[in-house]
Amino acid sequence: MQKKLVVISIDAMGSADLAGDLSATPTLKEFKEKGTHVKEIEPIYPSLTYPSHTSIVTGVYPKTHGIVNNTKLQSHVASPDWFWYRKDVQVPTLYDVAHEQGLKTAAFLWPVTAKSKIDFNIAEIFPNRIWTNQVLVSLQASSPLFLFEMNRKFGKLRQGIQQPYLDDFVTACAVDTLKRKQPDLTLIHLVDMDSQRHAHGVNSSEANQAFLRQDQRVKKIIDATKAAGTYEQTVFAILGDHYQIDVSKMIRLNHEFANRGWQEMGAAGTTKRGWEVFAKSCDGSTYIYCDKDSSISPEEIRAVIISIEGIEAVYSTAEVVAQGGANNCTFMVRPRGAIILTMNLMARRSKRLKMTRLACRIVIRLFTAFHLGKRTTKQRSCLKGLA
Ligand SMILES: [Zn+2]
After folding, report:
1. What are the Cα distances from residue 238, in Å, to 11, 98, 120, 207, 262?
2. Is the pLDDT of residue 382 over 60?
3. Ligand 1 centre from 241 Cα, in Å?
4. How remote is the CA of residue 70 from the centroid of ligand 1, in Å?
5. Structure confidence by residue, pLDDT tens digits, 75-91
6. Cis previous bond, 164, omega within 30
7. How far is the CA of 11 from the centre of ligand 1 (A)?
8. Is pTM beyond 0.70 here?
9. C-alpha 286 – ligand 1 centre gap (Å)
10. How far apart are the CA of 194 and the centre of ligand 1, in A?
11. Which class is 4-239 in CATH?
12. In CATH, which of 2.40.10, 3.30.70, 1.10.3470, 3.30.1360 is domain 249-342?
């Protein structure tokens, strides 16, 4: 009998979550006791969602698969694009190999799968520019007919990309697909607990509640294979992509660089193009990039960085590569303890930029409303649910 594989990624679940008494999460408890439990792993570096998920489906480090951070090196925009698209992954993936072998594949919000050859794919993507919206980006990144169908059935569960509704939608779609399509490979990414930890803290009651919800979602997914009659032939891999720590202090390295004239501040705390030295945050550690024509020596940059209170280590390019990170950075800076190295120079957004964004949003809303008005009621409710 041919085996099937279901991978469930519970974002931000670490070994600490599975170490204690799991009586409140009976599904995970059963898996821990009856399955193969790997108590601890060495994460990739930097241990971020997109690099980690790509390593999970490629088996190689970020320096090899190319997803070295969540977001791209776009210093001049306040919200850089994420590595959403499959084309950014530079090596074959598990789902590519499965597809080539004629196996049926499905993915639900699995990072970096937009515009991939996955048979049934709902890609993780959001509108990052004011001239687009969730409907358009989701449709062009995912399997459009499949997304349309899932949204028609379960779109009512969603409230945009807000949690816990998004994970409820994802779970409902995965359950339906496991029952009706019975894929050979299914990749599921659940983000509820990561979102709650970001918003409320690692050990907050909101995060704890999210952990309970994840257990219930895992149960629904497993039960779907029982209903489909595929449970006995299915291997389940339930994993986390990284852990989190509570942050007590932020260091803005780009602020230090701007003070020395190594870069210039743009709008909304960004760094204008044409910088000589730029710190690109990995939500903890930070890559330091240096323009190839810059006259500033790496020794000078290192001296400035290590003079700042709260820095634990400054890794050279060779040391970063040895740990699996990007090979085109000048340094990687690791902060101490509960300190985060962040990117933007200032937290405030300019009033003018705010007004421009608001005006553009209104225009897009009006355009979308006009466009949807031309469609049938069925299509309209389906599209609205996507936004
Ligand atoms: Zn994550």
Report:
1. 11, 19, 20, 18, 45
2. no
3. 5
4. 9
5. 999 899 999 999 999 99
6. yes
7. 4
8. yes
9. 17
10. 6
11. alpha beta
12. 3.30.1360
CA distance 384 to 377: 10
Ligand 1 mean position, distance from CA 360 (Å): 31
Split at pLDDT 50, 70, 90, the class of 353 is very low
Q: What is the CA radius of gyration of the chain?
A: 22
Q: Is a pLDDT exceeding 70 seen at residue 108?
A: yes
Q: For CA atoms 56, 58, 64, 69, give the dihedral sign.
A: negative
Q: SS3 letters for 23-39?
A: CCCHHHHHHHHHCCCCC
Give 126 Cα–ligand 1 centroid separation in angstroms: 16
Sign of the CA dihedral 73, 75, 80, 81?
Answer: negative
Measure the N-to-C terminal CA separation of the chain; round to a whole number of Å.
Answer: 41
Q: What is the pLDDT of residue 354?
A: 52
Q: Per residue in 116-136, pLDDT tens?
A: 999 999 999 988 887 778 888
Task: Please say whether the beta carbons of 43 and 52 come within 8 A.
Answer: yes
| Tokens 């120079």, located at residue | 345
Centroid of ligand 1 to alpha carbon of 52 (angstroms):
8
- Kindly give the distance from the C-alpha atom of residue 107 to the centroid of ligand 1, in angstroms, as a whole number: 16
Domain boundaries, the chain: 4-239, 249-342, 351-386
Q: What is the pLDDT of residues 158-203, one digit of tens each?
A: 998 899 999 999 999 999 999 999 999 999 999 999 999 999 999 9
The alpha carbon of 49 and the centre of ligand 1 are apart by a number of angstroms equal to 4
